[in-house]
Amino acid sequence: MLERMKIALAGLTLNEIKELLPSGPQFRASQIFSWVARGITSFEEMTNIPLSLQNELKEKFCLFSSNVINRLEDGQTKKIVLSLKDEAKIESVLLSDGKKRLTACISTQVGCPAGCVFCKTGSLGFKRNLDCAEIVEQFLHLRNEKATGNSGHIIDNIVVMGMGEPLLNLPNLRKAILILNDKKGINFSLRRITISTCGICGGLFDLAQNGPVVRLALSLTTADEPLRRLLMPVTNANPLEKVKEYLLLYQRNGGGRITLEVPLFSQINCREKDADSIAEFAKGLDTVINIIPWNPVAELEFNGKPLAEPSEKEVKDFIQMLESRKLKVTKRLHKGRSVMGACGQLG
Ligand code: SF4
Q1: Could you say which of 62, 91, 165, 314 is catalytic?
Q2: For the chain, what is the largest distance between any 2 Cα atoms, rounded to a whole number of angstroms?
Q3: CA within 20 to 30 Å of 61's CA: 114, 149, 257, 301, which one?
Q4: pLDDT averaged per 10 residues in sequence order, the chain, 347 residues
């Protein structure tokens, strides 16, 4: 069978492997599932699987449907470029806190249909959703990468904040999270997975009703709706009033504190009016505001002018405006800029 037509084991649940097992007793499925979770790169590494079954597996399955074709590193950040079975390219990022902790930032789509004006991925347009295996494989690739570069370090957070809008690919993401979380496999805690969305009402409602209950971040940017419509066109079909209704539902149904991400641009969304609107939006929700001084992408414009990163004073003043409105605020440090691996720079 052609390599790219084979089924990628990383995208299968344990039950699916049981159903598709070509031969042998069912306990072999658990052994295979556990080998895949370890990120092995050849069937020969399945040392407790008989050679005959290894050969049968090779005929029908592949371990990875994607491969790493490029790596860029700047000490604290490593960006990998993956080539997918149809030759499409995506990027995933490993961020270090400078100690022993690593965060894996993974993508859910090739490109993105949301078209946020400040995001490089959004400027590329949309090609397709990633399938479940392509999502899980990013984690496995990043973990294999860190085994060579940061041995002893642990990936203790996954943020679904890479290329694409996760809630527009929720069925595949949901299954990928199920596989990542399976105790017999990768066993990654749901509490350490964050989905970041630009605020897609249908997806938020589905997530609030049907889970999984992971951490949630909303890329808010501003809650001044006319400005938000210009910066984030998805606002037209997903008004903030509805977004908030579903965030409240998510918290009523067991979801925890929501991070409201505010990428900050010079002279655009750092006005008193923006602080007022964010304070109003946050009322009744358990939130923390995360200020992200915008990471420059050369070709992006707003209102005919190049977008600019905010000055330190603009950032400081805006944080003060929010804090004076009794909001909890954190500021994200610049990470990964030199490898174009920071927020909004992928693509
Ligand atoms: S910020 Fe996120 S949702 Fe918006 S265009 Fe970029 S990838 Fe898509």
Answers
A1: 91
A2: 69
A3: 149
A4: 84 97 90 98 97 96 97 90 97 88 95 94 92 98 79 87 97 98 98 97 98 97 98 98 98 97 96 98 98 88 92 97 98 70 67
Separation between Cα atoms, residue 64 and residue 45, nearest integer Å? 14
Please give the pLDDT value at position 332: 79
Looking at the CA of residue 112, tell me the nearest atom of ligand 1: 8
Cβ of 164 below 6 Å from ligand 1 = yes
Taking alpha carbons only, the member of 146, 73, 77 closest to residue 335 is 77
Q: 73: which 2 tokens?
A: 């590193």
Q: What pLDDT does 2 receive? A: 64
Q: What is the pLDDT of residue 219?
A: 96
**CATH numbers and ranges of domains, the chain:** 3-62 (1.10.150.530), 67-339 (3.20.20.70)
> End-to-end alpha-carbon separation of the chain, Å?
32
Q: Alpha-carbon dihedral of residues 235, 240, 241, 247, nearest 10 degrees?
A: 120
Report the pLDDT value the prediction gives residue 312, as an integer from 0 to 100. Answer: 96
- The pLDDT of residue 151 is 62
Active site residue 343: yes
Alpha carbon of 222 to ligand 1 centroid (Å)? 15
Distance from Cα 184 to the centre of ligand 1, integer Å: 33
Active-site residue 116, yes or no? no
What pLDDT is attached to residue 270? 97
Q: Where are the alpha helices (DSSP H) in the chain?
A: 14-20, 27-37, 51-60, 120-123, 132-149, 170-181, 201-210, 225-231, 240-252, 272-282, 312-324
Q: What are phi and psi of 157, to 5 degrees?
A: -145, 145
Could you check whether the bond before residue 212 is cis, i.e. omega within 30 degrees of 0? yes
Ligand 1 center from residue 163 Cα (angstroms)? 7
Residue with CA closest to ligand 1 atom 4: 116
Q: CA 310 → CA 221, 266, 268, 291, 315, distances in Å?
A: 13, 4, 9, 11, 6
**Ligand 1 atom nearest residue 197's Cα:** 3
